[in-house]
Write a structure and sequence with these properties.
alpha/beta; 2 domains; three-stranded antiparallel beta sheet; 33% helix; globular
Amino acid sequence: MSLANGNRALVVIQLSGGNDGLNTVIPYNNELYYDQRPSVHIEQGQVLRLDDELGLSPALGPIKRLWDQDKVAVINGIGYPNPNRSHFRSMDVWHTAETDKVGSEGWLGRAIRDLDPKADNVLTGVNFGRGLPRALACKDVPVASVANVETYGLLPDIQDERAKALALKAFSMMYGGADGKDAVAQFLSQTGMNALKGADILRTAPAKYSSTVEYASTPIADSLKNIAQVICADLGTRVYYAQHGSFDTHAAELDSHAKLWKDVSDAIGDFTDDLREHDREDDVVILVFSEFGRRIMDNGSGTDHGSGSAAFVIGGPVQGGMYGEYPSLKPADQLEGDLHFSTDFRSAYSTILEQWFGLDAVPIVNGTFEQLDFIRR
């Protein structure tokens, strides 16, 4: 059964640490790539060719298969003005869509608030992993964060319903205080109770799910399998978030980068197969991004923090192809040894928000940005 248009879902995969876009989407026919990457490059014969100029790392086999099915949009040169090579600042920019100041709310948190303005569903947004990414943080927006849906639940070790009710009452009093007049106490009470309310609902998802797809035993595969379980359980979740890394490949990059991408690509391949098996392929768009790319010149073993990189949008609703101009590798065109960005990341966000979710992107991404055409009409 396919979800209604009003319940379209977005899965965001964050490649934490700064993915090397130059060794992900490879200009295999450009001599400057090999000249400036004498040690850390992909040999031309190993590249999975997308066209006469660009190809993918051999670690991205399943993503190449989806490309061949016209379901992968490659966004070249993605970044933002006046890039910052700090992990923390750059991730803050991507999470809040604020380039000129430190943002207070996440872009996905604002999107969730618009998707569910009355906060009727505490599971409109779910993070799979530790903590809560700033992208999902927003005032009065409940977001669940879970490591594993099979073990996540509301006091799962308390089987007796009367004992559970007493424990819940104690929890409520602990969070809410005696009179409930204190604003901080009220906020903590609502946040805590929303988390608890969503916990038991999420824990029902695995029982409603069966699949012939066998996922690999990796953290990102576990997260995407969990996401598939929640999608199939029809819990009304619209935004899913997962992370993998670290892509901070200052040394021994060729082996570590290939392993990282194999884990991600294999997991995406299994996940999309799972969606297809459950007739959900056309209900989900996947966004894969990293906070920045790496420098053009290698350092002999790895690559250091850079700026412009590549992102992917994947799924049945995606119009596959190349989007954005691939940055020039000519020394005169470089940004202090980095790739110049050619596509503002907020263009990708705006496209997803408006063309996929039907939202007004301007207040969510803090401005008007040119949209791309990677969502099928």
